[in-house]
């Protein structure tokens, strides 16, 4: 008898599957199992034949089974009604959505904003300076006198003998220190210009300059701040190295290389097989520069750095052609 | 600078591989840009023995050589006349890249050839192409050819920063490598065999310009035989990319490459009066340099003269009149120290850069001129014979004193963030040939060698300490600065916000060059005298396309539109928010205001499914209204007046914010479209961002939300097509009816019923009181009165 009850529930469940689609068949099934002369009712009738000592238990089982069957059938009926309704008035859910307008900021802007944001968090204030700049600020006060071989490192666009298109964002260092007393902690993004145009150079490009000057700031701090920056920008697992270099306005000077983001240091085309990518130049501010702005190099020390936004954006987005940035092809701009 | 590893190893014993040396130099600030084989074409070329020679079955002139090779014997088809069994010859394996192309397994007249036997010429090692290169019988077989010939070498390209003139030589790099390997440089030993008469009986040197030429030394060698250089000398120069000229000139170049001291060799007998005078060039002086060009010398240039006139431009280039000729017998060798700035200035003004000027302007070693002079004399004797006159001429009136710098150990450590002891610092500095002695527990007296002219200050020593001990070893620290929040400049912030607003409205940001062509401004139809046609010009632009600083953002945006039209992008909105450049009254620098401009084209909705209407005037106007609203400027009006010539006057307006003109917008003029070769209509806006920013509204003050319901009433007016829809609107508002909350245009339409030249405008007026619910009667009374005033004022009929 127990087996018969269990079997009934099982048969009913099986019989129900798929019946939601067909309300009439569902109704017939309900009568077959739960009707007055239905299969469950038959079992109830046989209860009398069950031996006395088991009758109570079987009766309980029958009641449980009845509840279960009623539940199954009412759920099926609900689904069946929903299906019926959906069949009558449903829309095609694959119809394209109405897109709200959505443009994008240029990848250079996005990258510059992100670089600045990292340094803003570190307490650096964003400042700006003129793009048409005096020779004095662009070179002279950065310890690059006329007829210095270092001028050859940067091909300059001239407006007049004394006025140039700034070749780097470094003049903002001088302008900032002229205006403020130490401590100074600034970051300066902007357009820069060099008279150079080929596959890897555009005559206009973007840099971000940084400067931190105060009491007791050391080369280790430069490493600390720039390490934090690299880890924020490229991820905490990216290795970096500081390599001696030369800039007339810093001493000591350091180029910062990061582990190639393409090959993870294994060596590839992007890093020319070295496993390293140069991403920024930096150094301790040269005492000569302090002389121009009236700071006392015995009192304050500090560091400066500059990085190319295009370079960072190319690495970040995997862009392999610098010139794309200034063609402003919609098919390019839409990707960022 | 190119450095041969083989040559380098003459002066320094490094127990580490060339790759490690390259890495070490890079990390010491001498960036090794590449490390490559001297003869890259000899990769995959082996020595092999021809074991047998068989005839080619299909060609009479070809033979099949059975040669030893990797993996056993292989058959090579060869047409050379001199192949014979037992000969040893270079074998190029498949994959070898010879100057004439890639070697491959190939069938030659039906016979497979697994490689190629090569001539000297095919290997790029000589001119002989008469047959394959038969190598000496004792040549080891089966080894790389460059090894077998003893010519295997690596070339290192080192990027030398402008401060390190001392590294522009093989010995210079050897000094850095020695510091790296904690060993010392083996300078070339010099023994000058002086057999000639005393030099001062032969010649004299007078220096009249000791500022430009602080030191001038010379030797004379007589009876040399000028001719081609021996192979070893040619080979070393060629490795570094220097062309061989003749033995005398080659020696001067060799010593320059070896020691970094540029030298000059004069034909002694062509120096008039056989003497040297060093003086400043006078204004307008002319001279023919050895490249055959007559040049006008800049006044003040250091000039090397004989008893009569110039024979060389000091430190830059010699003269045609005294150069070494095939018949030169006696030579005067010049080894001098020229003032770097003077050389730099002369070189720049003449537009000549030579290996010599490159080194002098970066600073040579005033203490090393005699070593180079002796070395050159010694080598000339070796390669050209003759006899060296006894003694040297050395004019050095004001000897340059060695730099003596006091290094404060504690300060250096605090500056770098290191914890080096005084002893450690001394040891590090001694590795780069400085002499250091402790003055007391904190101070070191450091004497800088004469070749390091770049080190003059304590801070320079700090750099050397960091560089030699390694930047990697300096601990990473956090600045112990006070916690201060960074301030934010509102101008920058608003720029960022407007960019985001536009991106959210479907605009893509573009970035165009700040320099444009003058023609591209003219195409905007500005008339003569317009300030936009007086841009700042570059003195040395790269091209006419980038010749002037932009006075407007429009040319860039219109060119972007053209570029994208050409690439089948026809529906877009783009903008640029950036600087334009205007001349400043003082003539220096520029005004650099920020402008914001954008252009839109094509369909209003990007999905064709949801509409195919084209953008029009209302789209650009809506953008500008949204921008003004964002910066909280309420008082903005649009008037078809004071329009710039690039806009179509039929569909354009100027923007006035708080009464001030801040920009314009509308349809771009058809003539401008034509000038820019734009085939479709374009709508554009332009705003003076800086003015807009100045007019920015204050932080809003909260107004309590209304508690009572609004009551709407509509008016429909039929008006002449010419009447601006805004006029009745402004009039209604000017009545200042206190219960009238807002007016909105909800409908504009035209139909035959209304009549041509007419339009119907629907205005919705919303009434509301702050303190009670308005009754219908109250509103109706107000509304009727208002409608009466409107019709009375405009004389237009209600529909």
Task: Write structural notes for this entry.
The complex is a heterodimer of chains A (336) and B (799). Chain A has 336 residues and is α+β, with helices and mostly antiparallel strands. Chain A is built from twelve helices and nine strands. Chain A folds into two domains: 88 residues; 227 residues, BirA Bifunctional Protein, domain 2 (2-Layer Sandwich). In chain A, the strands form two sheets. Chain A has a seven-stranded mixed sheet with strand order 1-4-5-9-8-7-6, sandwiched between helices. In chain A, strands 2-3 form a two-stranded antiparallel sheet. Chain B is α+β, with helices and mostly antiparallel strands and 799 residues long. Chain B has six domains: 65 residues, Phenylalanyl-tRNA Synthetase, Chain B, domain 1, CATH 3.30.56.10; 109 residues, OB fold (Dihydrolipoamide Acetyltransferase, E2P), CATH 2.40.50; 202 residues, Phenylalanyl-tRNA Synthetase, Chain B, domain 3 (3-Layer(bba) Sandwich), CATH 3.50.40.10; 70 residues, Phenylalanyl-tRNA Synthetase, Chain B, domain 1; 205 residues, Bira Bifunctional Protein, Domain 2 (BirA Bifunctional Protein, domain 2, 2-Layer Sandwich), CATH 3.30.930.10; 88 residues, Ferrodoxin-fold anticodon-binding domain (Alpha-Beta Plaits, 2-Layer Sandwich), CATH 3.30.70.380. Helix content of chain B is 25%, strand content 28%. In chain B, the strands form twelve sheets. Chain B has a seven-stranded mixed sheet, sandwiched between helices. In chain B, strands 13, 15, 16, 23, 24 and 25 form a six-stranded mixed sheet that branches. In chain B, a hairpin with a 2-residue loop joins strand 7 and strand 8. Chain B is elongated and about 130 Å long. The termini of chain B are far apart. In chain B, 40% of the residues are buried. Chains A and B meet through helix 5, strand 1, strand 2, strand 4 and strand 5 of A and helix 7, helix 10, helix 12, helix 13 and strand 29 of B.
């Amino acid at each position: 008898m127990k087996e018969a009850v269990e079997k009934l529930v099982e048969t009913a469940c099986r019989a129900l599957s798929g019946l939601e689609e067909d309300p009439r068949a569902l109704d017939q099934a309900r009568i077959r199992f739960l009707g007055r002369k239905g299969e469950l009712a038959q079992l109830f009738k046989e209860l009398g034949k069950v031996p006395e000592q088991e009758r109570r238990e079987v009766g309980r089982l029958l009641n449980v089974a009845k509840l279960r069957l009623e539940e199954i059938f009412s759920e099926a009926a609900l689904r069946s009604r929903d299906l019926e309704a959906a069949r009558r008035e449903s829309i095609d859910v694959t119809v394209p959505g109405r897109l709200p307008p959505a443009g994008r900021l240029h990848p250079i802007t996005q990258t510059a904003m992100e670089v600045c944001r990292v340094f803003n968090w570190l307490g650096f204030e964003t400042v700006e300076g003129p793009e048409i700049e005096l020779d004095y600020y662009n070179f002279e006060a950065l310890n690059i006198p006329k007829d210095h071989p270092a001028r050859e490192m940067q091909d300059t666009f001239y407006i007049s003998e004394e006025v140039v298109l700034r070749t780097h964002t470094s003049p903002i260092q001088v302008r900032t220190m002229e205006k403020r007393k130490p401590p100074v902690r600034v970051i300066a993004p902007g357009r820069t210009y060099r008279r150079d145009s080929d596959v890897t150079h555009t005559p206009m490009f973007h840099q971000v300059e940084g400067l931190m000057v105060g009491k007791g700031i050391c080369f280790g701090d430069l490493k600390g701040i720039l390490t934090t920056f690299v880890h924020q920008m490229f991820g905490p697992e990216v290795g970096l190295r500081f390599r001696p270099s030369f800039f007339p306005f810093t001493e000591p000077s350091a180029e910062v290389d990061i582990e190639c983001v393409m090959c993870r240091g294994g060596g590839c085309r992007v890093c020319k097989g070295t496993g390293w990518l140069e991403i920024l130049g930096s150094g301790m501010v040269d005492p000569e520069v302090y002389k121009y702005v009236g700071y006392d190099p015995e009192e304050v020390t500090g560091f400066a750095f500059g990085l190319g936004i295009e370079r960072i954006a190319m690495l970040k987005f995997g862009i392999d052609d610098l010139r794309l940035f200034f063609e402003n092809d919609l098919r390019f701009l839409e990707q960022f | 600078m190119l450095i041969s590893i083989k040559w380098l190893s003459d002066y320094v014993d490094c127990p580490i591989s060339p790759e490690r040396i390259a890495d070490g130099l890079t990390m010491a600030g001498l960036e090794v840009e590449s490390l490559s084989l001297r003869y890259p074409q000899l990769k995959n070329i082996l020595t092999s023995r021809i074991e047998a020679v068989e005839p080619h079955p299909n060609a009479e002139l070809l033979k099949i050589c059975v040669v030893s090779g990797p993996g056993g014997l292989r058959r090579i088809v060869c047409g050379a006349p001199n192949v014979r069994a037992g000969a040893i010859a270079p074998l190029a394996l498949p994959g070898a890249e010879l100057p004439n192309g890639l070697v491959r397994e190939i069938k030659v007249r039906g016979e497979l050839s697994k490689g190629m036997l090569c001539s000297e010429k095919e290997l790029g090692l000589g001119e002989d192409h008469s047959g394959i290169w038969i190598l000496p019988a004792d040549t080891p077989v089966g080894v790389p050819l460059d090894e077998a010939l003893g010519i295997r070498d690596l070339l290192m390209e080192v990027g030398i920063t402008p401060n390190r003139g001392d590294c522009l030589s093989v010995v210079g790099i050897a000094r850095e490598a020695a510091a790296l390997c904690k060993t010392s440089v083996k300078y070339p030993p010099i023994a000058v065999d002086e057999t000639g008469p005393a030099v001062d009986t032969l010649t004299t040197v007078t220096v009249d310009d000791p500022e430009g030429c602080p030191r001038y030394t010379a030797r004379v060698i007589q009876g040399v035989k000028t001719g081609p250089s021996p192979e070893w000398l040619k080979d070393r120069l060629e490795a570094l990319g220097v062309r061989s000229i003749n033995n005398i000139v080659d020696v001067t170049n060799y010593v320059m490459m070896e020691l970094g001291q540029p030298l000059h060799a004069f034909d002694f007998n062509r120096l008039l009066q056989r003497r040297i005078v060093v003086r400043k060039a006078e204004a307008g002086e002319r001279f023919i340099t050895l490249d055959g060009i007559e040049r006008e010398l800049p006044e003040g240039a250091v000039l090397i003269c004989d008893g009569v006139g110039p024979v060389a431009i000091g430190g830059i280039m010699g003269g045609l009149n005294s150069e070494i000729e095939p018949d030169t017998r006696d030579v005067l060798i010049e080894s001098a120290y020229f003032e770097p700035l003077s050389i730099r200035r002369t070189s720049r003004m003449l537009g000549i850069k030579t290996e010599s000027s490159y080194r002098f302007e970066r600073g040579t070693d005033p203490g090393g001129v005699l070593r180079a002079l002796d070395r050159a004399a010694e080598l000339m004797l070796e390669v050209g014979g003759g006899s060296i006159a006894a003694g040297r001429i050395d004019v050095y009136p004001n000897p340059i004193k060695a730099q003596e710098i006091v290094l404060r150990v504690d300060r250096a450590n605090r500056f770098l963030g290191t914890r080096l002891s005084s002893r450690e610092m001394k040891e590090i500095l001694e590795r780069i040939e400085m002499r250091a002695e402790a003055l007391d527990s904190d101070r070191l007296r450091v004497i800088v060698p004469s070749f390091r002219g770049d080190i003059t200050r304590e801070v320079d020593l700090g750099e050397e300490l960091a560089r030699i001990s390694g930047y990697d070893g300096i601990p990473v620290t956090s600045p112990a600065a006070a916690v201060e929040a960074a301030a934010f400049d509102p101008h920058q912030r608003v720029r960022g916000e407007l960019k985001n607003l536009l991106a959210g409205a479907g605009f893509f940001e573009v970035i165009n060059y700040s320099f444009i062509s003058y023609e591209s401004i003219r195409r905007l139809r500005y008339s003569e005298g317009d300030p936009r046609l007086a841009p700042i010009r570059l003195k040395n632009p790269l091209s006419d396309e980038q010749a002037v600083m932009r006075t407007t953002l429009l040319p860039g945006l219109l060119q972007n539109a053209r570029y994208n039209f050409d690439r089948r992008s026809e529906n877009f909105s783009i903008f640029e928010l950036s600087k334009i450049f205007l001349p400043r009254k003082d003539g220096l620098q520029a005004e650099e205001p920020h402008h914001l401009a954008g252009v839109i084209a094509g369909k209003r909705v990007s999905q064709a499914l949801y509409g195919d209407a084209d953008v029009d005037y209302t789209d650009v106007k809506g953008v500008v209204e949204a921008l003004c609203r964002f910066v909280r400027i309420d008082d903005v009006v649009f008037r078809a007046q004071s329009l710039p010539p690039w806009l179509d006057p039929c569909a354009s307006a100027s923007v006035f914010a708080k009464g001030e003109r801040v920009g314009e917008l509308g349809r771009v003029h058809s003539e401008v479209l034509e000038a820019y070769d734009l085939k479709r209509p374009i709508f554009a806006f332009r705003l003076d961002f800086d003015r807009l920013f100045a007019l920015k509204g204050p932080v809003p003050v909260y107004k309590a939300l209304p508690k009572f319901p609004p009551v709407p009433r509509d008016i429909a007016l039929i008006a002449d097509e010419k009447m601006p829809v805004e006029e009745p609107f402004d009039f209604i508002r000017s009545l200042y009816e206190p219960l009238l909350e807002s007016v909105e245009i909800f409908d504009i339409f035209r139909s035959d019923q209304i009549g041509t030249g007419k339009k119907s405008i629907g205005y919705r007026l919303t009434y509301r009181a702050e303190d009670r619910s308005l009754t219908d009667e109250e509103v109706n009374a107000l509304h009727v009165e208002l409608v009466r005033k409107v019709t009375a004022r405009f004389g237009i009929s209600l529909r």
